[in-house]
Please model this.
Amino acid sequence: MKNFISVEDAGHINHLSRIALDYKQNPLSNQSGAGKRIGMLFLNPSLRTRMSTQIAAENLGLKTIIFNASQDGWQLEFNEGAIMNGQTVEHIKDAAPILGNYFDIIGIRIFPTLKDKEQDYKEQVLAAFIKYSGVPVISMESATLHPLQSLADVITISEAMEKIIAKRKLKVVLTWAPHVKALPQCVANSFAEWMSAWDKTDLTIACPEGFDLDKKYSPDAIITHNQNEALENADIVYVKNWSSYNDYGQILNDPSWMLTNKKLEITNNARVMHCLPVRRNVELSDEVLDSKRSLVTNQAANRVWAAQAVISEILKSIK
Ligand code: CP
Model:
């Protein structure tokens, strides 16, 4: 593995998931990171990604340095040929090669602007780090995708649904949820992409009109604007808010879309997932989150093993 930016870098999903589950059984079994260093740059806040990736790297013997780039770093310029007489202080062409000297692997978290769709979906920041750093880059959530989360989601579903998966494909529903703020589409895009690529699941996406995701991430998914219709016989319900892709960045706070135990009655005794952080009783009700149906803590715990699998696969490509 050279970089980890999307499902295309994952290779065979079941194989990568198996590696992660092996680490869960034996976290310190591989010390191939000894003498190596990972730099983790956060241009946006994080709890789970920051902690789990650090634990994963240290399990493999790597040294970790975390840099809150938006607070402590110089404001970076990404545009080619920019005349830097404004707010930006350092060009990515100058900063990234230096980081590539300091580190063997770089992890980046960069959220979208949610103002300029074309710019956000170009993934300019990630592309610039890959181009100029000269070392493998791991997305710790980008403008459009969150692959470490999606791999942890695959692992969580594999564990929770092991017996059913052995017999048949799962009906997985990604349902939009209300929110008071504009959130990126990245977790939803990424989950849709991984569920579409994985041979164990059939994906249905339920969202209000005007909130369809970019179709390129889930070309074969069933799309519906009727949440009840989607929930029928679902095995897994993945709850997530996203702002509009079409009317870019616009929000809708329609409480009728919040998942409740009543709504779950028409599912196939579904388990419920959310990447966290979650706005309780806005996105998801307490009764669902605090019930045995909820897999949210398992998902967050599995972030360690997902990151460990990815970092160890990347280490294989480093001389
Ligand atoms: N799910 C997730 O990525 O959590 P953080 O934003 O806290 O890292």
In short: The CA atoms of residues 60 and 94 lie 30 Å apart. Residues 46-49, 141, 149, 275-277 surround phosphoric acid mono(formamide)ester (CB under 6 Å). Residues 7-145+302-315 form a domain with the Rossmann fold fold (CATH 3.40.50.1370).
